[in-house]
Amino acid sequence: MGGVGLLAGLGPVEALAQPRANDREYWVSLLSKIAEPVLTALADDQLKARMPVESKPGQEADRRKYSHLEAVGRLLAGIGPWLQLDSGDEKALRQRYFQLAVKGLGNAVNPNAKDYLNYDNGGQPLVDAAFLAQGLIRCPRLYKALDANVRQELLTAFRKTRTIRPGFNNWLLFSGMIEAFFASVGEEYDKMRVDYALRQHEQWYKGDGVFGDGPEFHWDYYNSFVIQPFIVDMLRAIPDRSYDFLRTRMEKIAPRYAAVQERLIGPDGAYPPIGRSICYRAGAFHHLANTAFLKQLPADIQPAQVRGALTAVMRRTLEDKKNYDSNGWLLIGLAGHQPDLGESYISTGSLYLTATAFLPLGLAATDVFWSAPTADWTSRRLWEKGENLPADHAVKA
To answer: Can you give the residue ranges of the DUF2264 domain (predicted)?
Structure first.
């Protein structure tokens, strides 16, 4: 992690030019920086005691009810594929975090533990129980490693969220994801919640790789934060072949939106600060990272250029020490501490959605995503290299 600190005082373009450890080592160093406070505190049954809850003035008491599950669920949704690996240079570190996660989840679902989390008080628990469910779908061995009684407590906690009615928007997918998790582990699941979420989102498709967030279109990153990664992962977890029609559509929609996301990343790793929840930082590229992890990128986008683009985003949003407090917890902001960027529903735990940018760490170090030579992404090729590239075009799906 020393290389991260040495680069912290440089500007973004200067930092991109500096020699450093290979990209995978750099990603792992950032993952460790982000995950360490959350996983160690939860394993010690001290997450509620140690984690600060920064939020909009006047929202502290409300967000404290939700922020801890936010941090846990969102972090595991991002690092789940990496925890699923069982080989490679990071095996010792990964095993340490895996064991911390096993122990921590035991506290998170134990009603007698200090860190027993909130699964049904208010609406927000539905969101972050769903991210936790997604993390377990992405890391099946984590669920299997839990003691039988812990698994039952986890299932009970997830069932508590069924009392929460989702909004008529991307929230339908949170209900659906929890049911998809039940299906993935052989439990009875509510097929109606899954069906409603998937079919309603099909109706909200706006064209050229983008869904509405509900009936309306929003200029924001929710197609990436939630909508498309959830649809893709739910379709992978649900065995029902009646959704093959949507799987076929997503084979065009998901790569197209990934291509758009790759083009949104500027030569210096910056991207348009558009719409809600911009404080999720690199999580704005959850979908691009997931598409790369699942090896579903468009044919004209090389994995190594996505690696370069995401690395640049991480440098802009996670490298500078101003993104963290003195104990290593994330602060509200996009590129530093910028608390006015946080909406009323944003708090410290929310910010750990940034971990979803790390999904390709679930690919082995020998995978072409990591082993191919460094490659420039589209905006660098166009703006800095002046390359003559084909024009971009819409996709019908």
So the answer is: 23-377
pLDDT in tens, 240-265: 999 999 999 999 999 999 999 999 99
Which tokens hold the place of 123?
């609406």
Taking a C-beta distance cutoff of 8 angstroms, is the pair 118, 66 a contact?
A: yes
Contact 232/294 with Cβ under 8 angstroms?
Answer: yes
DSSP-derived secondary structure for 69-120: HHHHHHHHHHHHHHHH---STTHHHHHHHHHHHHHHHHHHT-TTSTTPPPSS
Pair of tokens at residue 206? 């706006």
pLDDT digits (tens, 9 = 90+) for 86-113: 877 899 999 999 999 999 999 999 999 9
Report residue 263 as tokens. 């083009």
Helix (H, G, I), strand (E, B) or coil at 330: strand
Q: 303 with 372: CB under 8 angstroms?
A: yes
CA distance linking residue 171 with residue 161, whole number of Å: 12
Query: What is the Rg, in whole angstroms, of the alpha carbon atoms belonging to the chain?
Result: 20
